[in-house]
Amino acid sequence: MCIGAHLANRELFTFFIRLIVGFKILGPMNEADAAITDGMEVNALPTALVVQPKKFKCRFEPRNLEDLELWIENSRQRAEIY
Predict the structure, then answer these.
(1) Which positions carry the signal peptide feature in this UniProt record (predicted)?
(2) Residue 17: per-residue pLDDT
(3) CA 7 centroid distance within chain
(4) Which residues contact 25 (CB under 8 A, 6 or more apart)?
(5) How crowded is the C-beta side of 11, counted as CA atoms within 13 Å?
(6) Could you read off the pLDDT of 30-69 as tens digits, one per residue?
(7) Where are the domains of the chain?
(8) d(CA 9, CA 68)
(9) Count of CB atoms situated within 10 Å of the CB of 6
(10) Cα(27)–Cα(42) distance, rounded to whole angstroms?
(11) Model pLDDT, residue 41
């Protein structure tokens, strides 16, 4: 196992939590671009051993714009140190 696996796991966890807390994840404006939820139609490669979903679109809307701007500014300040 890689020495950095635990750090990578925590970084991914932090990224996804920030994404979920910071944004509403919504369907696309055009229904033709929506995700396919039918279990038989979802696979882009029908002969594959595992499911590879067909491409779809989604939208991200900030839950709270003020908090989001504060997070971005704090991240920018921390990055300037390095």
Answers:
(1) 1-22
(2) 94
(3) 19
(4) 58, 59, 60
(5) 5
(6) 888 888 888 778 888 888 888 888 888 999 999 999 998 9
(7) 5-81
(8) 23
(9) 10
(10) 16
(11) 83
